Amino acid sequence: MAQQYGFELIRETEIPEINSKAKVFRHIKTGAEVVSLENDDENKCFGITFVTPPPDDTGLPHILEHSVLCGSRKYPSKDPFFELVKGSLATFINAMTFADKTVYPVASQNTKDFYNLVDVYLDAVFHPNITPDTLKQEGWHYDMESPDGEMVYKGVVFNEMKGFYSSPDQVLYLETGTSLFPDNLYGANSGGNPQAIPNLTYEQFKAFHETYYHPSNARIFFYGDDNPEERLKLLDSYLSEFERKDIPNPFAPHPEFSEPRRVTIPFDAGEDADNKALVTVNWALPDPLNVERTLSLQVLYQILLGTPASPLYKALLDSGLGEDIAGLGLDTDAYQMIFSTGMRGVALEDASKVEATILETLDKLVKDGIDPLEIEAAMNTYEFSLREYNTGGFPRGLAMMFTSLSSWLYGGDPLAPLAYEATLASIKEKLASDKHYFEKLIDQYLLKNTHRSTILLEPDSSYRQRLEAQERARLDAYRATLSDTEIEAIVAETHRLRQNQEAPDDPEAIAKLPFLKLSDLDRQSRNFPIEVSQHDGATIVYHDIFSNGITYFDLGFDLQTIPQNLIPYLGLFGTVLLEMGTEKEDFVRLTQRIGSKTGGISTSTITTEKYDRSGSALWMFLRAKGTQAQNDDLLGILSDILLTLKLNDKERFKQIVLTEKASTEARLVPAGHMMVASRLGSHLTLSGWVREQMGGIHYLFFLRELANRVDNDWDGVLADLDSLRKHLINRDTMICNITLDAPNWDK
Ligand SMILES: [Zn+2]
Q1: CATH fourth-level superfamily of 276-460
Q2: Disulfide: which of 68, 190, 256, 644 matches 128 by Cβ 3.0-4.6 Å?
Q3: How many CA atoms lie within 13 A of 99 on its CB side?
Q4: Using an 8 Å Cβ cutoff, are 377 and 599 in contact?
C-alpha cells in the first residue's frame, strides 16, 4: 500500500459531481483520518473535526472551543486569531461547537496564507495553553469589585449562552435534541446552560481536552488547488508527536419511544403580554449513513415544506393557528436525523391543534397521494441545487466537508454523500416504478414512527426573574460560606484577571505569528468581465463567466422612483411578486411551475451608497436561474409575474404579512445589535433610511399596523400595492443583468 509522509492511502477515486480527485488517508502512527480533495478551486479549505460528546450541560465542548484559540505552544499570543485576521486573506475563519462535534474550519485563496492558518489551527487544537485562568476567562468565574460589592458570575461563554437562551428559536433548537434523545449524548447541551456552567471544574476541562483533542479522534479535511503533498507533510509534523489511543465511540441509536412525548418549556417572554407560543412536532429518524435514504428524505422535506405552496407548509398557514412555520426542518447533522416542523405565533388555546393539523395533513397525503406536480417540482429543485452547488459566500469546500461529515463522523463512507449521481438515478428509478415512493416514506418514518416529541414553548413573563432570583440565591449562599480572607482573595482575583485581559499582548508573542508579506500577494487585482448595452430603453449588463450551462438572469428595478410612503411595502413586495399568483395561475400552481421548470426565482434588494459618494444605489432584483433548455420557460414565468401579477387575494396577502411579522419579531433578540445599527444608520444616509424603512424596527411597526389595515382598510392597502407595482415595474428604469459563458450566450 502506498505510503507518504506517515500516511497510508486507503482509497483514491474521481468524483465528477464535484470535479475533484478524492483521496482518503490514514495516519499510520495515530489513526487520524484525512479526506484530501484535489481540484482547481483556488478557495482552498481546511477543517479539523473532533467528536466531542458533552458529558453534561456545563458547555464543556463550547468553552474548550473558545479556549484553544487563546494561544498555543508555537503561537503564545493571547489572541492569535484576532491578530491573524488583521493581516490574513482568509475567506472563512471560525470555530464551531455542534451537539456532538467541534469543528475548526478555514479557507483562503492565497496559498501562503492558507498554510499559515492551517499551522496556527493545528498548533491551537493540539497544544493550547489552557490554564485555570483560561477557564475563568472563557468559561466562568466569581467576579467581585470590592469586599462589600455584589458577587456575580462572569465569563465569555457564560454571557454568550445567557444571550442565547433569551431567544425562543434558540431554546427550541436545543430542546429538540434533548426531547428526542434524553438518554444519550444528544440529551446534554454542548453549548452550556448558564445554570450548569458554574459546575465545571478545571480538572474536567483539562481532561476533556486530553481525551478528545487527539489525532485518533480527528477527521481532517483538505480541499482546493494547492499541492496535496504539502498537506500531508504539514499534518504529519503535528500528528507524529502522538501515540495511537482508543477513544470510546459515543454513537448508538437511542432506545425507541413506545409512545410520543409531550414537553412544555417556559421561555422568557419579557413584558410583552401578547407573546404567543411556539409548537413543533419532531421525529427521530435513523442514522444518515444510508445515503439513498438520506437523500430521499431531503427530497421529501422539499415536497412537504420546501415552499409556502408545499402541502404541509400550506396546510399549516391555512389553518390560521399560527403566524409562521417553525422547527428545525430535516437535520442530518447528528447520529440520528431529525424531522421537525411546527408553528410560531400560536395562541395557547390552539397549541394542541397544531400537532393534529400536522398529523392529519400527513395522513391525508398518504391516503390521497401527493400531487405529482409537487413531486416533480421538488425533485427538479433538489436536483438543480445539487448540480449548481451554489453555497453563496460560504466556501464550497467547507460545504462539502460538512456534507461528508454527515456520514464520515459516524463511521460511514466520507465520499458517498458527495458522489450523488448514482443515488439520484436510483431514487428516480424507484419513483418511476412506484408512484407511492414518497407516500411510503411519510408512512414509515413519520406516521408509524412513535419516536416523536411535541414541544410547546410557552411564554412566561416571570421566567427571567425566577432564573435571576435562583442565580442570586446560589451566589448569596456561596458567599455566606466564605471567610473575609476568602472574599479578599476573590476580589484580588477579579482585579488580577481584568489586568491580564487588559494588558497589551506581548510583542514577541505577536511577532511569532506568521503574517503575510507584501511579496506574498498577487500584484494584479481581479476584474470581472462586464459589458453594458442598451435595449428598448432598458440597460443590459452582461458577464461572460463560465457558469456550467446555467443562465443567471436578474431584473433590477430602481427604487429611487418609489414614493416615500410606499417604501416600507418593499420589505415584503419581493414575496408578493412570487407568492400571490398571477391572472393565469394561483400561487400553488405558479410555485410548482417555478420549481419544475427553472432552477429557482428569488428576489433581493441592494441599498447602499455608491463607492464614489455620488448618491445611493437602491434596487430590487428579481433573480432567476435555469439551464439553457429552461430559458423559454423562465422568461415566460417572469413575464407572467411582471405583467399579470394578482394582488387582490386578501387572505393570501394577510398570510404573507403575518409570516413576515413573525419572522421579523423572531430576529429581534438574536439580531438585536443589527436592529440598533440599522436604526442609527437611518440618520446618516438615504440608503440607511430606506433599509430601516424596509427591514428595521420601523418596518416591524409598519407590519403590525398593516396586519390590522388588511382587515379594516383592504381597499386602501390594495390601492397602495397597485401604485407600488406601477412605479416599480417600469421598463425605462430597469436593469437586466445576465451571467453566462460566451459560447452559450451566442446561441
Ligand atoms: Zn461561543
Answers
A1: Metalloenzyme, LuxS/M16 peptidase-like (3.30.830.10)
A2: 68
A3: 24
A4: no
Mean pLDDT computed over 560-588: 95
CA–centroid distance, residue 138 to ligand 1 (Å): 9
Q: Which residues contact 311 (CB under 8 A, 6 or more apart)?
A: 303, 304, 361, 365, 370, 371, 374
**Domain pair 3-249+477-511 / 276-460, same fold:** yes
Q: How do residues 425-436 score in pLDDT, each as one tens digit?
A: 999 999 999 999
Q: Can you tell me the mean pLDDT for 502-517?
A: 89
What is the Cα–Cα distance from 114 to 118, expressed in whole angstroms? 6
Across 267-276, 380-389, 524-533, 606-615, least confident range: 267-276
* Chain segment 22-51, per-residue pLDDT in tens: 999 999 999 999 999 999 999 999 999 999
| Residue 65 falls in the annotated catalytic set | yes
Task: Please provide the DSSP assignment of 348-398 as one string.
Answer: GGGHHHHHHHHHHHHHHHHHH---HHHHHHHHHHHHHHHHH---TTS-HHH
Q: Structural domain boundaries of the chain?
A: 3-249+477-511, 276-460, 531-746
Pairing of strands 616-627, 550-558: antiparallel
pLDDT at 1 over 70: no
Strand partners, 223: 37, 45
- For residue 495, how far is its CA from the centre of ligand 1 (angstroms)? 24
531-746: which CATH architecture? 2-Layer Sandwich (3.30)
Residue from 38, 65, 160, 439 carrying the catalytic annotation: 65
Whether the pLDDT of residue 276 is over 70: the answer is yes
How remote is the CA of residue 673 from the centroid of ligand 1, in Å?
17
Question: What is the structure's pLDDT at 191?
Answer: 95
pLDDT beyond 80 at 746: no
Average pLDDT over residues 132-153: 96
Instruction: Tell me which of 138, 355, 458, 579 is the catalytic residue.
Output: 138
Q: Which residue has the cell 415536497?
A: 303
What CATH code is assigned to 3-249+477-511?
3.30.830.10
